[in-house]
## 1
Amino acid sequence: MFPGFEQIDGVSSSPDLSLVQTALYASGIFALLMMVLTFFAVLSLPIFFGTVFALEALLKLANNVPDPVGKLSKIFGLVFRSLRRNVVRTSLTYVALFVLTGMLSTIYSGVDLIDKITQEKEDNVQVIMTERFGAPSMMPRSYANRLKGILKELPPEAQPRNIDDDFMVWSFVGATLDLNKRTQENALFMLALEPDAIRTMLSYQGLSKDDMSEEAYAELMQSIDAMKKDKRNVIIGPERLELMGKQVGDSVKAYALGYKDVTYDFKIVGSFPAEVSRWSKSALMRLDYFNDTLDGAKTFSGAEVRPVNLIWVRMPNKAAYEALATVVNEPKSFSAPQAKMETASAAIGSFLEGLKSIVFAFKYIIMPAIAVIMCLVVGITITIGVRERRSEMAVMKVLGFLPWQVMGIIIAEAVLIGVMGGLLSTWLVYFAPKSIEAFKAFTGLKFKILFFDKISAPILITVYGPLLGTFVGLIGSALPAISSRKVKVSEVFAQVT
Amino acid sequence: MPLVEVRDLYKSFTRGSETIEVLMDLTLDVEAGEFLALMGPSGSGKTTLLNLLAGLDTPTSGTITVGGERISDYSESELARWRTRNVGFVFQFYNLLPVLTAYENVELPLLLLPLTGAQRRKQVENAMGLVGLSDRMTHRPGQLSGGQCQRVGIARAIVTDPTIIVADEPTGALDSASADAALKLLDILRSELGKTILMVTHDPHAAERAQRIVQLEKGRLAHQNLTLTH
């Protein structure tokens, strides 16, 4: 399991669910998603018909443009007339395509998010060294220097670009404000690290410029600068401050929970921006101060003091990581205790291991199934439309329209509904997470969606949606269009008369 | 020289392993500007003959020449282009597109011809004027009576200024007054505009308007110039 700081802090639980629970959970989400999408699909019907009306009005304007534009606009105008012919059927088809595209793009976004977390990046690979067999991981301080030594011995192309900036040691510090009253309010769980690491390495943990507003980022930078001025200075998240009944500027005396007779004298010099909810209950102290307090310290159990929990290194590429991992994973490099090296994404990947089969099912079974259902929905609707208008098509052919022209009108109808459904639906899926984040920032409410602090949808879905709609329109209308092409004018003429 | 020359026409359809002979050994001439009525019992092949003469189908053997063009050798797309320029169609049930206005229905075949917007407008207005529906151009078929729909159908048939007008039971769905008006229109088209009219009908009153009545029986020509007796 990925030893995320929040798990250490006891804030969030892991998705340690049984398969049945997970399946039920997924089905519930699926049903809820369908209902929400249907609601929005119905709400967006005026937009759909408004757009269709606007496009038709534009086409009508083009009617007066010299040919061939004028002439083509008149022929293409038939597509819009046909869509308006049976408003209920057109609406239902649109709603179905909206919902299905929405589900597909939501699943795609979810899978993409998980993929992004779990997939290796070729460049700037973040790696973690932890104790191989112990949980929680506890390593002696000497391991940090030894690892730095190993990094320096690697071939130049395999070394981090800047060992100081690309190296971060984490020590988890448990303390209480009152040894006799160890309540939640008095608890203080901290992460000891070098202040500069917040800027260089911790930015990957939701503290980058992209994770907050400009003002909030400037505020965070100020707090880091303040922390660097004195080794006793600390940054504490707003929620933790509230629990403790403290504020920025206060001094705090805390007592170590893991070591005998170790006390800390902190000065709170900053807090995390309120909009970075992930860090709102967290606290950071300086590693040098933590190390100073440990000189001569003993654990309550009498065990060796091993205060280093994690060591993070940013390697220039995957090959460099593999070179480092080979050395670290050799038992002789770090023997007491043994250490292991893995990529951060691999560690997170194991955290999400429980979801792997669900993700696989979504990716390779449900997503293609939805695409097939979409094609069927379009196919059935257009087939009904073609059957209803068989004599009209025959008449058009009698008047001199060529088969491909009749076929083009049918396909254009399907593609138009597909594109509109795909476009509006994926816009919803793209902008909904942004709206939720904006709502959270505006109201100050903090909540997770599934296991994620922050959700987002890739912008590419706004392109994929209409493309999918086009594809579904083309595939779904293929058979009815071919059928319309094959309408024999003489047969229908005879049937009509 | 006749406008339409049909020589040794043979048409059969295959249904499963069975071959159905619809037209056999048919030879027929139609002069330019002639009003010809095709009559005969159901299954005699009159609609099939009309389809072949109008370029909607191709014969199994034999030739059809219209205005010097041997249309029996044309491909499907060649026939489509030929129809747009040379044939106007009048249907029993009008077959107007319900989503289009009367004006747009009449304009439809013109969209396939190399005409400017102004030319199209002029031709549509002329055709609508000729059938007496200049004041109904923005109406949809659902807003028109059966007789008016048929007049729109006739306007659509003549709007491209075709050589031949093909009418399949044009009065079959009309009351007697509307039927009379429609037939009068066809007669005017022949007498004043010189159009050649080929009309399939069961109605002896409608057939009386024609200059010549051709009787078909079991796929063969029974009479080239039938006289109706009442």
## 2
Amino acid sequence: MVTEKDVQHIAGLADVGIDDKELGTFTHQFNAILEYFDILDRVEGNGQATRDLYNILREDEIEPSLPQEDVLRNAPAQEDGFIKAPRVM
Amino acid sequence: MADAEDQVIVGLEVHCQLDTKSKLFCGCSTDYRSDGPNTHVCPICLGLPGAMPSLNKRAIEYAMKVAKALNCEVLNESEFSRKNYFYPDLDKAYQITQYDKPLAEGGYLEIESDEGGERKIRLTRIHVEEDPGRLVHMGNVERGKYSLVDYNRAGIPLIEIVSEPDMRSPREARKFLNKLRATLEYLSVFDSEKEGSLRVDANISIKGHERVEVKNITSYKGVEKALLFEVTRQKNLIRRGQRIERETRHYLEARGVTQSARSKEQEHDYRYFPEPDLRPLRVRSWLDGIVLPELPDARRERFMAEYGCSLNHARTLTGELKLANFFEKVVASDKPGLSPLASTWIADTLIGELNYRDMSLDNVDPAAITGLVLLLKAGTITDKSGVEVLRVILDQLLKGEMAETPDAIVKRLNLAKTAGDTGAITAAIEEAINENPKALEDYRAGKGGALNFLVGQVMKKTRGKADPAELNRMLAEALKKRGA
Amino acid sequence: MADEISFSPDDKYNAFLATCKRAPHGNGKLAGVAVAVKDNITTKGIETTCASKILKGYVPPYDAHVIGLLKAEGAAVVGKTNMDEFGMGTTTENSAFGPTLNPCDTRRVPGGSSGGSAAAVAAGMVRMALGSDTGGSIRCPASFCGIVGLKPSYGRVSRYGLIAYSNSLEQIGPLGKTVTDVSALMGVIAGHDRHDSTSLDKPYNHTPNADIKGLKIGIPQEYFGKGVDPNVADVVKKGIGRLEELGATTVPCSIPSMEYALAAYYVTCTCEASSNLARFDGVRYGPAPDTKKSWHDAYQEVRSAAFGTEVRRRIMLGTFALSSGYYGKYYAKAQVARENIKADFNRIFADVDVIAGPTMPTIAFRLKEKSDPLSMYLADILTVPANLAGIPAISVPCGKSEGMPVGLQIMGRMFEDERVVDVAYAYEQAVN
């Protein structure tokens, strides 16, 4: 059973921001879906994923980087070649 | 060793950039330091939608070398995981790192303990991960703050080496770090001179109290300083009967203090899961093919055996790859003849003079030191003149000039010992005695300090060129003549 | 020198998000063939949005590997097709730019999430299209629109440049009106790519062969049981009957792990998606965050405004399932379930050559018919097993129910894409 508080916490972790109207709906839906997921409790087995590929590596070789204007073109805000981002301090 | 009541306990997490040509998951060059922001990025390290990582083989080979050199156990199977968190320097909003299946576990590094002697610092694990980008903080409170991001550093390969809490002082932590740096440099996988190539998080506690994590230490000296600050802070709290909070603190290098990180930053839930775009590694068998070079401990032993260095000199000289190589170049032409003087002059004098000038050894030509040592060995100049020659050379280099040879300096400054020129010394002795009748009196009265005083006076007059043993003999004779 | 084709379709089904009025093409196996590309496949110089507001205006500086292959064989990339936002849906209604309509009946959905690609092919606007299939996203719209769609074996087609929704499940694959076209497009896009560490050196050089005499087909009871529309089941059974007439034999079988396949699928894809979609914060591309705010607040603002409801729902579900204390209960268990599903398939494939059943349990839904998320998820039950196991699966039209197309799904052994193509081809040749 997840509560509205749990859903709010998860929304915070995921940085998706939900409003009060959505909170109840999401909580209700999550409980239905998570209840459905509970069927996984019945899964038996030891769980190691079988992987047929190992050691997929490339040689240490330099390839061209993007031109700076291509890097910045899609960034909504820039300054002196840097990409502008929200404050962290 | 039983820990004292207020024993300091330190464990380190050291992040080192591996010196590969290209980044960990893409072909962008790692040689970004002299270029503008966001010029060494591609869809992969910029985290553009749809781009996928491909793992650099050399980064794994380098990490394996480190694992072997540090006596770690390489796991049969290791894999990469995603560490999920939001931060503007993290292009994908997750860092590709290793979590429950690191490359290697266990191992140890030996350091000189505070009690003297060697002590094993156990290692927990070694794993490989990518560096995030770099943030510059801009703006101010009035006009609003913001960040600027440069992703050139994003994707540079790192190894994280995690130690057990086996260090017992900030000094031991510094020694661990220096030894680790030397080892990585001997392995040719790391360049300590690149800015920001090493970063340390430290866990520090006083026995019986909560542990504090200090993040953001970016220099070798910083580790000792940050930890000394923490020891004082924590001991003061305990003395005042206050509780030590279990928390994360940031080291502010400029102010030399640690500061509590805000509580929100401490609520982490990284939601690790295996990186689905990469395949696991099974590389343990590579260990057999790795031939390790001579490492610091072995070289130290060899320096003692082959060159007759003292333990302390050998430790200093082999503590840095460049210094060890330098020493061997200096003495190459005559190992038994030059080593005793060269080890002292390099380990003690040269390092001191370089540090005083904040200079790098790179500037110094080993041949100059060989020349200097030869002059000293032949008795052409006194130790005092030797220091003067060295200072002249370093000062010339510091000014960006071509340094003169030691021979030329000795000639130009007329520093050759006044051996044979007893007349000048005799004159200086006579002058010194005549000018200091009180010293003569004291000497007659049996005050030992008087002789040393007079020796100093004569040295000054001869500008250090007089051979000290010769001078002592002549001075004693002169005093005798005066009935002393 | 490259030629051009002009492309100005009357897009009355809202199949396209972007079109290239004059599309260049070269020479090769697909010289001058108009190919539509799902909008989660990165195209250099052409806006690529995943049908999300968060990528509105994003023009990639690079091509997905498959786009390079298409161009190298002379194809003309004529447009980017509508889809459920980031591939999250079964109807193409979850597009930030309006739903695509089903050309067979515009009151119905085309299926999803590659609905735009399927509609563009079904309406004859293009001969072939690329889609992506995470849990049925190629086969479902192929089935609903009455065309052919192949989900290749995991690893046969490079995912480099496919905007990831669920990395361990999805593949890019071809859609077309005929098996021959689908096979031809598969031949161009398959093969190893050093930029995709999960891709394999298994090129596809195959001409469909209709001879299926002696073929053994497994018929899993779960594909005809509860939840499957009896009319759809009947149509598919008749289709399988045709295969028997062509010389194949059928063997009943069972996939017990099917009972938790859907849960394993949704846990896996939401977990991976929660991580994949975290990068959309507006800093490097997308809508600008308020840089004066602290980063969490600024990101929340951008992401709540620019992600649709279903996307945010899945991100949160995945975030929850990976959060501290739940990894073992959900993600780890889902991976065990996948192993069990693979084991079930291996056991069955020791006995039979292919497995056949309906692609979807129903015909195309009416628009807005599926409003509850869980009931929408349940519609994927017959397609997700192939993604969980990584095996190839194709949907080929096999008749109609209530006047709407029904798809026959053929699943094959790992890397036997050629065989499922042959079986679909045999069926197609027999009925046409």
